[in-house]
User: Fold Imidazole glycerol phosphate synthase subunit HisH from Intestinibaculum porci.
Amino acid sequence: MIAIVDYNVGNLASVTNAFKRQGMDVKVTRDPQDLLSADGIILPGVGAFPVAMDNLQKVGLIEPLTKAKEKGTPMMGICLGMQILFEQGYEVTPTKGLGFLKGEVKLMEVDAKLPHMGWNQLVFNHEHPLLKYVDEGEYVYFVHSYGAVCPDDELMAYAQYGHAKVPALVAKDNVIGCQFHPEKSGEVGTRILKAFKEMIER
Assistant:
C-alpha cells in the first residue's frame, strides 16, 4: 500500500489518481499506523513551508514519518512535500523542516520570472533508479518560487532556469524529493511513477 499523506496542503486528487493509474494500492491518510505499515509514502504539497510543518505537527505525523524513514520505507516528497524534507526553510519565517535531507529551502535567486512555472528540461547529475525510464533533456512541470540549496551528492537532477540550476530531483537512501510535479508531467511523469512503483516492489 502507498500512503499519501493528508495534511491539508496537497492536491490530493491528482496525485492519488496518478498513482492509481500505475495500478498501485493507494490510501490517502493521516493515520500514523498507515505510515508505519505502508510500502511507500508520498508527501504531496502546495502552499507555504511553515504551514506545512505546522500542519504535520498538529496531526501528529512528524514522529511516524521519522520512524518510517528510519525503517527504510521509500518516501517521495512532491513540490512543497520535497521542500519540507530539508533541514530548514525560509518562506515567510525561518522554519525547521523534517531534516531527512541536508540543506535549506530559500527564495530562488534567478534572473527570470518568479514563480518558476512551466516546463523545463531535466539535466542529470547522478544516476538514480527514479530516472531509469527518463532520457536527459526531457521536460517536466514546475510551479514554485522557493528552491532547495543542497549538497551535490543529494542532487540527482536539476533544471536550468535563467542562470540558476534548480534542484529538480534530490535523494538520499530511501528519501526522494521531486520539485516538479510528476503527476502533471505527462508521459515523462508517468514513467517516473512507474520507476517508483518498481522501487517499492523490489
In short: The mean pLDDT is 95.
